[in-house]
Amino acid sequence: MASSFSINSMIPNSKYLRHLRNYSFPAFAALRETIINSPLKSTSNLSCERSCRFGIVRAASSTEGVVDDYGIADEERTHDGKVLRVGLICGGPSAERGISLNSARSVLDHIQGGDLHVSCYYIDSNLNAFAISTAQVYSNTPADFDFKLESLAQGFRSLSDFTEHLASSVDIVFPVIHGRFGEDGGIQELLERTNIPFVGTGSTQCQKAFDKYDASLELHRQGFVTVPNFLIQGNEMDESRLSKWFAQNLLDIRSGKVVVKPTRAGSSIGVSVAYGVTDSRTKANRIISEGIDDKVLIEIFLEGGSEFTAIVLDVDSSFDCQPVVLLPTEVELQSHGTDDVKEKDAIFNYRRKYLPTRQVAYHTPPRFSMDVISKIREGASLLFQRLGLRDFARIDGWFLPNSTKASSFAGNKFGRTDSGTVIFTDINLISGMEQTSFLFQQASKVGFSHSNILRTIIQHACLRFPALLSHNIISSPSRRRSKSSSVTEAFTKRKKVYVIFGGDTSERQVSLMSGTNVWLNLRAFDDLEVTPCLLAPATSYSDVSGFAKHEVDKKSKTVWTLPYSLLLRHTTEEVLDACLEAIEPNRAALTSHLRNQVMDDLTIGLRKYSWFNGFDISDELPKKFSLDQWVKLAKESQATVFIAVHGGIGEDGTLQSLLEAEGVPYTGPGVMASETCMDKVATSLALQHLTDFGVLTISKDVKKKEDLLKMSISDLWHDLKLKLHCDTVCVKPARDGCSTGVARLCCEGDLAFYINALQDCLPRIPPNSLSKAHGMIEMPNPPPELLIFEPFVETDEIVVASKSRNENAHNLLWKGDSRWVEVTVGVVGKRGSMHSLTPSVTVKESGDILSLEEKFQGGTGINLTPPPPSIMSSVALGRCKKRIELIANTLQLEGFSRIDAFVHADTGEVLIIEVNTVPGMTPSTVLIHQALSEQPPLYPQQFFRTLLDLASERSA
């Protein structure tokens, strides 16, 4: 949220604050009823609503039945014996807990349905078990999750009570715990002791495969090429032995390059590059001292090779297994021309794997020769079998060309090809399952949607348990229903929807996440045909650096309509590269050949099962259009456009104007409202007459960039302080999306640094470059022509603190001297009758302000929705919502938007910060939390469908 102030909070290892009351609104509830009656995939109306909710278990009695949000017990729901009850377990003690929460949310979004009921559970860092609610799953960060745990979950007294509950309440468990306790056999052993069916590999096999050192020994015994390594256990550091190992492997003891990694911490945590014996020892000791692991592996750094990863799917009905390896992915690390040696020596670490960074690109299938791809698939299949893995796994490795030193340790072991050597290095028993993970990237390449691959994995696991053989969930619901004539007819009349995202602004990666999330949620409706569309980023941002954004030639912009698999990427640049790669004739022919080969292998194994209803993703190529052509296509298709382009032409009225000219309905506010809200000065001017109604605006001084570059810094600083009557100033672009280019200036030096950043067209200001501690500040590109200076509003810090050292619960501490707090709130509805959702107060986490990519990967801070009574009374909150609605209606907003503001805790007066007409719609966005806080709750699928239908109703 862009803001002219900050709430600094110190958050100890917190747990939980009670999540408070909900609010209802009849108008929006009526819209919701319309959506519930829309046909959803694999569900009747009521069963879909039920399947979205999860039971809360009373810790005092683990044998009680699970009750959903409608108060319907499992016994009432499953009387016909056809609904498969799945227990989804996430969390765990490892540093990958946040990824586990994201995976759980993704799995939940894609497997729920009338034939499959999901209950969610969480294991904390101390191995305490909880039953968690749906709202808990959509928490935006691990800290936010912990904070709400007390109010949105119920704990079990022991793991024994937990497994006793599972045995009576679920048919099968799907663990999505990454790292320790999830992949090392811990949760598996717990379930095996109670004879509870579960998805995935057994405990003994997990233990052997998870430990990187033990797995390396087993691979060596099985005849595979392995990377030379050295094991350090605990504090046993024999430097002379390590020096000898360096020498044996022809590594310089002072500068030889190695990889240092924990043996039992998942695929990414704690992995780093070291140079020489001393550096290796230091980094190994750091892993041990930080408690990541007490066993550390030092490996030769594999120079000149390419990393790959491959998903393996078991399709056999027996315990012998029949693994099929999907299309592997090549992981290309990119340094973008840097001369930094350490950057060029970079590895595929946690940040590159899970954040939308341009430092990595994926190629599926790999850009390897056919013999190498065949060797990867053959080797991964053999490993899956010989290690006794089950259902699915992800296997990582390296391909090293003949020119590298791999031949010196490869010998005649498995992995040698004419082109080079294939080495397998890591076995991931529970692969990441976020929306754009390798599992879904590779599965979609061979015809599986998210839902289809997950349900196929679950159904395959059921084959091992005789009691579950009668449960035949639908692997591909739409494929099965399309056989009926009535449904086929409905399919031909499906309403077309184009979801557009991307663009040129610094928020384009957030836009990609928003668009992907909207597209996946709307795909759940059988009456919709949803097409994802990329507004292509400029190939070089310097090409447009001399123009203001609104002056860029619209005709030069291009839009790509995307097939399913090409959208599952981390950055817009990567999506565009994948489009260009896909239409290259030789590449397209290779991909088609490999795809058919893998699909044939899968069909041989899966066709014998009645529950498998085929593949549901077709093999398509992306299509390129000019922006004008794309708008005309939308008109000809009678499509509704769902706008998810943050900033730039997505929010300044340009895209809205093009669509309106052709009569194409679209989501969000109209042209005039978009233009006004994009310009922060215009927004203030449009609202300044509302002072008597409790709506206030912040004083602003607007400067041209060209004038700033000419002025004396000292004179400018003095002038700003005099005009704004303040000592601390906030600077922000006059016309840009939220967060970009917003900085706090405390002195002349800060002002000089910021102006130099504008002059040098810096893409970002590094952390702590200004006098007040801060995180990464993303800068607009091209630089803004107009900048706003305004007073930096100080507010009292909100702190979450433990009640006592012996208690898990936490107090919310707020001095409240200024009585102002920052809120963000969504508004939804038709023009003139916009409804305010319940505002959220954001308690920022301690430490640096997060960068854009980190902020929207999983949200930021802890969201209090609604603000607790200790901060704001219900009367003040009600007044605040009325004023938010007044703001929305005055600005002529419609559809949906997000308003950021300060609110006076006693009077409910609103001091407007800005209005975002295309707010973030990522899986954990605060708007989802607010929709879930309504009565009845509005879940993501229904929320996005409501927004889509508001667009259609506007055009009717």
TrEMBL record:
<feature type="domain" description="ATP-grasp">
    <location>
        <begin position="887"/>
        <end position="952"/>
    </location>
</feature>
<dbReference type="InterPro" id="IPR016185">
    <property type="entry name" value="PreATP-grasp_dom_sf"/>
</dbReference>
<keyword id="KW-0573">Peptidoglycan synthesis</keyword>
<dbReference type="InterPro" id="IPR011095">
    <property type="entry name" value="Dala_Dala_lig_C"/>
</dbReference>
<dbReference type="Pfam" id="PF07478">
    <property type="entry name" value="Dala_Dala_lig_C"/>
</dbReference>
<keyword id="KW-0961">Cell wall biogenesis/degradation</keyword>
<keyword id="KW-0133">Cell shape</keyword>
<dbReference type="InterPro" id="IPR013815">
    <property type="entry name" value="ATP_grasp_subdomain_1"/>
</dbReference>
<feature type="domain" description="ATP-grasp">
    <location>
        <begin position="217"/>
        <end position="459"/>
    </location>
</feature>
<keyword id="KW-0547">Nucleotide-binding</keyword>
<keyword id="KW-0067">ATP-binding</keyword>
<protein>
    <recommendedName>
        <fullName>ATP-grasp domain-containing protein</fullName>
    </recommendedName>
</protein>
<dbReference type="Pfam" id="PF01820">
    <property type="entry name" value="Dala_Dala_lig_N"/>
</dbReference>
<dbReference type="InterPro" id="IPR011761">
    <property type="entry name" value="ATP-grasp"/>
</dbReference>
<dbReference type="InterPro" id="IPR011127">
    <property type="entry name" value="Dala_Dala_lig_N"/>
</dbReference>
<dbReference type="InterPro" id="IPR000291">
    <property type="entry name" value="D-Ala_lig_Van_CS"/>
</dbReference>
<comment type="similarity">
    <text>Belongs to the D-alanine--D-alanine ligase family.</text>
</comment>
<keyword id="KW-0436">Ligase</keyword>
